[in-house]
Amino acid sequence: MSEVGDVKGGIEALLFDLGGVIFEIDFGGALAAWSAHSGEREEVIGERFSFDISYERHERGEIDAGQYFQSLRSLLRIDLTDAQFAEGWNSIWGPELEIVERLPGLLAGRMPVFAFTNSNPTHQAAWEQRYSRALSIFQRIFVSSEMGVRKPEPRSYEAVSRELGIPLDKMVFFDDTLANVHGARAVGMPAVHVRTAADVERSLIELIG
What we know:
Blueprint: E1 13-16, E2 23-25, H1 28-38, H2 42-48, H3 53-59, H4 65-76, H5 82-89, E3 93-96, H6 99-107, E4 113-117, H7 121-130, H8 132-135, E5 140-143, H9 144-147, H10 154-164, E6 171-175, H11 178-186, E7 191-193, H12 197-208
Parallel strand pairs: 1-4, 1-6, 4-5, 6-7
Antiparallel strand pairs: 2-3
Helix pairs in contact: 1-2, 1-5, 3-4, 6-12
């Protein structure tokens, strides 16, 4: 069954994740950069790294980059400068994904389009510049570190709904992370798990023709 097959119409907006949906990200780039700076093997750094509590706090804006990098020094057991950590942190960016070229034609201005991403100020400064063309399709981009909440926390989807003045069940959310898809559905927001551009295209055709 289609992931939007039970949506009965009345959809007022579309909401997209960014990394993994609009552009590619690969944390292997960060590991490689930190390995080059520290002399520690990349696979060892990879084994030590985790998306831990400090990572989540950074994405909620509860700690700044310097505080997060300090936590990485302990977690990864490498003594890099903030600048070296930041260099690696911004070595994750890949190409725009295929759906970027298809979205304007599929939407044709028929429905407002927004984005909602878990991110932090260091990354945000990079992706805003690097992907400015791709991001121009969105009327507004919600960023977790500016909101103080992150996916898949229920309050995050509720905050987007409240800010836009659009009920949760009147938006369709597209995300490549299954936990975030489940989080949206749990609060009543229809959601599509994005694995390829075809998942987005098929769902949009069903929703808006």
